[in-house]
């Protein structure tokens, strides 16, 4: 109903919110009322399709012992905002954040994948990442394509010797990284392109093998 009422003419991003609506100034989650709302907007490219240049952020991803980072907690996005603005104001498109243990965590609002020697590596949940739906989709698609996916800690130095790196998220879909700091990545991106082509076909409901991922709406 929400989508039909808005009658989008292109990609339509939907974001649901659950929030505490009780009046008061004490920080608490007990004895409060909650409410729910949804907003949506027509979305052009969230990031440039041709790829982005990334800075290693001076801001660290929060730890899971401080916030439940597997979910989209609004308050956690202040760090993402600081990292993104720092990157843009210093001439880059996007930020890559490390965790407090010095391992690669994620970008300002996307998960990260590194391709090397024909395999995909991505930080695991112990690296304080968002448990992203698109991340999970990418892992499934890659394995269905016969590409080995390894979830493990990733060092910064691995980004500087990678064959390919891409970001993924609901809005970003799959966005290749062209450069990390001063390291220019190869222009040939066979793994990134295979997964992007497959995901695009699924999103556009052109792949019968993944129809249970899609919910068509007649406008």
From TrEMBL:
Q: Which InterPro entries match?
A: Aminotrans_IV (IPR001544), Aminotrans_IV_CS (IPR018300), Aminotransferase-like (IPR036038), BCAT-like_C (IPR043132), BCAT-like_N (IPR043131), Class-IV_PLP-Dep_Aminotrnsfr (IPR050571)
Q: Which cofactor does it need?
A: pyridoxal 5'-phosphate
Return the EC number.
2.6.1.42
- One Pfam family name is Aminotran_4
> Which GO molecular function, any one, fits this protein according to its record?
branched-chain-amino-acid transaminase activity
Q: Which UniProt keywords apply?
A: Aminotransferase, Pyridoxal phosphate, Transferase
Q: Which BP terms in the Gene Ontology apply to this protein? A: amino acid biosynthetic process; carboxylic acid biosynthetic process
Entry's family note: Belongs to the class-IV pyridoxal-phosphate-dependent aminotransferase family.
Q: What is this protein called?
A: Branched-chain amino acid aminotransferase
